[in-house]
Design goal:
2 copies of one chain form a homodimer. By secondary structure, chain A is of the alpha+beta class. Helix content of chain A is 18%, strand content 39%. The first copy, chain A, has a single domain, classed as Pnp Oxidase, Chain A (Roll), CATH 2.30.110.10. A 6-stranded antiparallel beta barrel of chain A has the order 1-2-3-6-5-4. In chain A, a hairpin with a 2-residue loop joins strand 2 and strand 3. The longest helix of chain A is centred in the middle third of the chain and has 15 residues. At the A-B interface, strand 1, strand 2, strand 4, strand 5 and helix 3 of A face strand 1, strand 2, strand 4, strand 5 and helix 2 of B. Chains A, B: InterPro entries: Pyridox_Oxase-rel, Split_barrel_FMN-bd. Chains A, B: This is Fmn flavoprotein. Chains A, B: It holds the Pfam family Pyridox_ox_2.
Chain lengths: 210, 210
């Protein structure tokens, strides 16, 4: 644990289990990547993937010089799940159940020879099984893509997974319902593209989501 | 439009409609707030609310000196919806449908006399209707809470809402299904707290979600 991953707020919500971190990352689809540009903070949503202790961040070489830096880029990456709304009997105790990881580190461009593997990790993270169903990147497509890699060495994980804080003698109005409404991600009916034959079955990568 | 909200990557996805921005913010529950601490980027998930052109960010006075700054804090705030997975016939064209707002500005602490209104905006944003059902904050609770306010003046909105890019003559394998799988947020069955009488009806703030 480093100075910046030490939790000053509600340290009891901290979690050092790598399994919790990995599952949290693997179940998420968007990472929010923060960096400093000309002294000012910038946060951008990015696709990502994971291979063991490495996080891959996917951008485009067109997405600004910051991604092209051969020296790498100091980043903070946040990945958050909102798991529930916590209805307490006071505004102050109203809360959210969540799992969040905040990662600090130096992101480096993935070298050309490793880019295909990194893109496979990102694609398989977003749409498991899809890589084998589709055409892999051409050399030109690979050249047009930037992937950054970041070690999962300096990470702060916080989890709240509980009902509302309530004290039997806190004087709140007990005639008010209190509890949790869980939140989850759901997938809708697949919408085929105009160039997809209507008789084509859904691929495994899609049926696995439904 | 400022230099830092000008889109260098896929400018056709930019959207200047304030209605799109407001709806995107009002439908989201978590904002990712980036700032610079000792020269390094930090990104944290935060609850938020909106009142017209003002965004309120909710933290705790315990969450670090950065939130207590009377001089305010330079921030970048990203709010993102992932609306769908886009299954193309190549890894390169695989994509996501999304709506994202990236806001830049100077966040200031809400003065004591306006804090209750700001907290109401955050609570009503997260759980519409809940404020009137529960006990409002006490003076002590208000003092223990920091809310930051940020003007929605410098904002970049990007939207992708389309099927996979596909060209009738691109040579991809047409026997592969292509299309979009929509993603949305769903609420599970409410779980009452131990101190909630089982005969109590669900409040309107909860039934409105289901």
């Amino acid at each position: 644990m480093s100075e910046r991953t030490r939790l000053t707020r509600k340290p009891e919500r901290g979690n050092d289990d790598p399994g919790v971190l990995h599952r949290l990352l693997d179940e998420a689809r968007v990472a929010h990547v923060g960096f400093v540009r000309r002294g000012c903070p910038v946060v951008l949503p990015m696709a990502f993937g994971r291979d063991g202790n490495r996080l891959f961040l996917h951008g485009s070489t067109g997405a600004g010089a910051f991604l092209d830096s051969r020296q790498g880029l100091e980043v903070s990456v946040a990945v958050t799940h909102l798991d529930g709304l916590v209805f307490a009997r006071s505004a102050f105790d109203s809360s959210m159940n969540y799992r969040s990881a905040v990662i600090f580190g130096h992101a480096m461009p993935v070298p050309a020879e490793d880019k295909q593997d990194a893109l496979r990790a990102v694609t398989e993270h977003l749409m498991p099984g899809r890589w084998e169903e589709v055409r892999p990147p051409t050399p030109k497509e690979l050249a047009a893509t930037t992937v950054l890699v970041l070690a999962l060495d300096e990470v702060s994980v916080k989890v709240r997974a509980a009902g509302p804080g309530e004290d039997p003698d806190d004087g709140e109005d007990r005639s008010v319902w209190a509890g949790v409404v869980p939140i989850h991600t759901a997938f809708g009916a697949p919408e085929r593209s105009p160039l997809t034959d209507p008789t084509l079955p859904l691929p495994r990568s899609v049926t696995a989501l439904l």
